[in-house]
Specification:
The complex is a heterodimer of chains A (about 120) and B (about 725). Helix content of chain A is about 45%, strand content about 20%. Chain A is an alpha/beta fold and about 120 residues long. The chains are: A alpha/beta (about 120), B alpha+beta (about 725).
């Protein structure tokens, strides 16, 4: 059982992942915009966070940087629907553990969560 | 004195004739008429020369000898002349042969007896001539032969004039008139033979006659005979005055003048002469112009029309319309049977008839190969070809003549643009059967060359429009390219939800449901069913959204369909929908207002979409640039700082009294200073720094497209505050 935070501007996406991972026995928090997401992460200190690059208000990369500035131990994965390799580079540069490209399969997510949280 | 004068007229006749003989003999290509004329002129020359020697003779013997020689020449003159006339009027070969052979036979018989007293018995003084011949028996027959032929030749020519037209008729007229003059002059010789005491004063007219005949036969493009007569008459009358008046003064005023001026009396007539001969040429020109204005009134009228038409031709942009106009003008103004235009077809590599007007059943071939003899001839001459002319003068091969007949051409006028024969105009005969004069052909050449320019213009414009259409389409596709990542992101998001939803249904809910069915746990199964419904709904919704995005993209990338009456509102909507895919509207405020009574415009739907898309795109970029500038500290944040926003407004408007549709795109982005405003429409000029990728062609494209729609662009901008673009497109509907 891991503590996971999802930050994405697509509510459908959040709804789906919340359902699935709660069913699988994890503790899931979701936020739709960057500011809210940042607050959730800093407050709850999740084992793994998934942050989409494109967010309203505070952007995904900004969230990543601020989290890393304040709580560098927290693991963040950057999510994106873009094909831009620049995002991959920036994500690693700012301290994300990896960059995920949408669409992503459920099994992949499960594997990733296991890999980085051991749960 | 009188005898000497007459002798010299004979010499003059001889010199003129022999000179012409030499001229024709030296011509490289002799026509049939040239050859006939040679023998005739030679006969006349021989007669003239002997005539001179006869009248200059000091003794009876030599006088007799020379007059017999002169008559030897004179014997062949009627035969040679008849031969010439029969060729001229193109009499049928059979009858020609009989007459010609018969004539020469008779002449030969006369010649045999020429030096015998049967012909000329002796010489004796008559009037002021020391040695005038007395006719023998045979002489009377010769004179009969002579007269019969001359009279008969004239009758034939008169008939021919009535039956022919154009060039031939003109030519025969010259010969007829010349002959009349000449033989009248020459016949004054015979008077004294029969004791009529009139000296051969008009002998010199024979010279004029020979010259006229030579002109009619040799000259390639004869002046219209009426014009020639008019000009000659004016000339003769005028110079009769110029020379006659001073002479008259000398003759009759001498005593009176000597009385008043003494020694220097001759200053007066000299003065007159000087003045008259100075103003003579000018008066000649004035009189000639006036006479020809009347004589050639009709011709001048249509020539004016043709000139005016040629000037207006370059204004026409549609090729077919231009060609139709040209053939119409030609047939109507010159009143010809038909006119056709052949243009070079670069695809088929030959000349194709592109326009025709007139009597269709006579039209002939429609295609001419580039290697045809006629085309080569046009390239060589670079001048109009007249069928009648080239037929009669034999300067051009028979193949060319054949080809001209095949396309039923009386005249072919080439059209050159910088040494390229881009086409030619085929003209039929004039309905009046008149001939094509030199000035006609000049005007036609001018018209053809103007037409060539106008035609090239049209072709160029058509190609240019094609290219422009391609260019616009390419620009639009390039813009769509920049959308790719934005659209990709959107679509990926949809798929993400669909995929995760389906997989979660499979891995979690369905599995649990299966377990519930086994264990009969209704509560959990109900929960699972509910969850599954949610998931499925989500999947369906996102699939639909995905489809929407694709549709917007496809709508926008439709191929341009040319100019039609269209609804601006539709274009706005499709552009905005697609644009929204690219830019995050949470970041940028967007307000759109389209008037419900928005008029329709005549436009290219695809291009209008592109204009709108570009404007919105630029607006979004301008806002981003402002944010960047503020962040970087380059721009002070003003007191009334607002979030970046775009307003799109479409309504009917008036510009210079005409109805337009006004599309306004306003943003409060970075704005432009005056310097920048001047440069923005230059291609590849871009204000976008940093990561915003673009081609820099946006506003250049907008400008070109708006021009193509005959619209206007107005800009209002202030650096740091924002920009408003106003696009005016002419409305297709009247008020």
């Amino acid at each position: 059982m891991a503590k996971i935070v999802f930050v994405d501007d697509e509510p459908d996406m959040l709804g789906t992942v919340k359902n699935v991972f709660t069913e699988l026995g994890h503790e899931v928090y979701t936020a739709e915009d960057g500011k809210e997401g940042l607050r959730l992460i800093l407050e709850n200190e999740p084992d793994l966070s998934f942050v989409d690059v494109r967010l309203g208000g505070l952007k995904g990369m900004e969230v990543l940087r601020q989290v890393k500035a304040q709580k560098p131990n927290l693991k963040i994965i950057i999510f994106t629907g873009f094909n831009d390799t620049q995002i991959d580079e920036d994500a690693i540069k700012y301290g994300a553990v990896m960059c995920l490209h949408k669409p992503v399969g459920l099994q992949d997510l499960i594997n990733i969560i296991e890999k980085y949280t051991g749960k | 004195m009188g005898a000497v004068f007459c002798a010299y007229t004979g010499l003059l006749n001889a010199v003129t004739s022999f000179a012409l003989v030499a001229f024709i003999a030296l011509k490289k290509q002799k026509t049939l008429l040239d050859k006939r004329f040679l023998f005739f002129a030679f006969s006349v020359g021989y007669w003239g020369l002997s005539y001179y020697f006869w009248l200059s003779a000091n003794q009876a013997d030599s006088a007799l000898f020379f007059i017999r020689n002169a008559m030897a020449g004179a014997i062949f003159i009627p035969s040679a002349f008849m031969h010439l006339v029969l060729s001229l009027i193109e009499a049928p070969w059979k009858s020609r042969k009989i007459v010609v052979v018969g004539n020469y036979f008779i002449s030969t018989i006369f010649l045999l007896f020429c030096f015998s007293p049967l012909y000329i018995t002796r010489v004796e003084p008559r009037l002021f001539f020391p040695f005038w011949p007395i006719p023998g028996i045979l002489f009377h027959f010769m004179l009969l032969h002579f007269s019969a032929n001359i009279i008969w030749a004239h009758v034939l020519m008169w008939n021919a004039i009535k039956q022919t037209s154009g060039l031939k008729q003109n030519q025969i007229k010259y010969v007829f008139i010349g002959t009349l003059i000449g033989f009248v002059g020459g016949c004054t010789n015979y008077l004294l033979w029969y004791g009529i005491p009139i000296p051969p004063v008009l002998n010199f007219l024979v010279t004029i006659y020979i010259a006229t005949l030579a002109y009619a036969i040799i000259k390639f493009r004869l002046m219209d005979v009426n014009v020639a007569i008019t000009r000659t008459t004016i000339f003769v009358l005028l110079y009769a005055v110029v020379i006659g008046v001073p002479l008259a003064i000398i003759a009759w005023g001498k005593s009176w003048l000597s009385y008043h001026w003494g020694e220097r009396w001759w200053y007066f007539p000299l003065g007159f002469y000087a003045v008259l001969s100075a103003i003579g040429p000018f008066i000649y020109l004035i009189l000639q112009r006036k006479a020809e204005a009347v004589l050639l009134k009709e011709q001048k009228a249509y020539q004016q029309t043709l000139l005016q038409a040629s000037r207006g031709m370059t204004l026409i942009k549609d090729l077919n319309r231009l060609l139709k106009l040209i053939v119409h003008i030609l047939t109507k103004t010159i009143r010809i049977t038909h006119a056709r235009i052949f243009l070079w077809d670069n695809g088929a590599k030959n000349y194709v008839c592109k326009a025709v007007r007139g009597d269709h059943h006579k039209v002939g071939d429609d295609v001419m190969d580039e290697n045809a003899a006629l085309i080569q001839q046009l390239h060589t001459d670079k001048e109009p070809l007249m069928l009648e002319e080239i037929r009669s003068h034999g300067l051009v091969s028979d193949i060319v003549i054949g080809e001209m007949e095949k396309i039923d051409a009386a005249v072919v006028v080439p059209s050159f643009v910088q040494n390229r024969l881009i086409g030619f105009v085929v003209l039929g005969n004039k309905k009046s059967n008149g001939l094509y004069t030199e000035s006609d052909l000049d005007i036609l050449t001018t018209l053809a060359n103007q037409a060539a320019l106008a035609i090239e213009n049209c072709i160029f414009l058509t190609e240019f429009e094609h290219q422009q259409a391609h260019f616009f389409q390419a620009a639009k596709m390039a813009d769509l390219g920049t959308m790719a990542s934005g659209i990709g992101h959107q679509v990926n998001n949809r798929f993400n939800v669909i995929k995760l939803g389906a997989e979660s249904a499979l891995m979690v809910e369905l599995r649990k449901l299966a377990k519930c069915l086994d264990s009969n746990d209704t509560e959990v199964s109900k929960k699972m069913v509910a969850a599954l419904s949610d998931t499925c709904q989500r999947i369906a919704k996102n699939a639909e959204h995905g489809g929407e995005i694709v549709k917007r993209l496809l709508d926008f990338s439709r191929l341009a369909q040319g100019f039609k009456v269209m609804d601006v509102k539709e274009a706005i909507e499709s552009s905005v929908r697609l644009w929204e895919c690219k830019h995050d509207l949470r970041e940028i405020g967007f307000q759109m207002e389209v008037a419900s009574d928005l008029k329709r415009i005549n436009g290219n739907f695809s291009e209008v979409e592109e204009i709108l898309f570009n404007l919105l795109d630029n607006a979004a970029d301008a806002i981003k640039m402002k944010e960047e500038a503020v962040q970087l500290g380059n721009l002070a944040k003003s007191a009334d700082y607002q979030k970046g926003a775009i307003w799109l407004n479409a309504k009917n408007a008036d510009l210079n009294g005409k109805p337009y549709v006004l599309i306004s795109v306003r943003e409060n982005g970075i704005g432009m200073d005056d310097e920048t405003q001047k440069k923005i429409f230059v291609p590849f000029f871009t204000m976008k720094a940093t990561a915003i990728k673009g081609t820099g062609l946006g506003l250049y494209i907008i400008r070109r497209m708006v021009d193509a729609h005959q619209g206007r662009i107005k800009i209002e901008s202030e650096y740091g505050k924002g920009t408003t673009f106003d696009i005016y497109l002419p409305s297709a509907e009247e008020n």
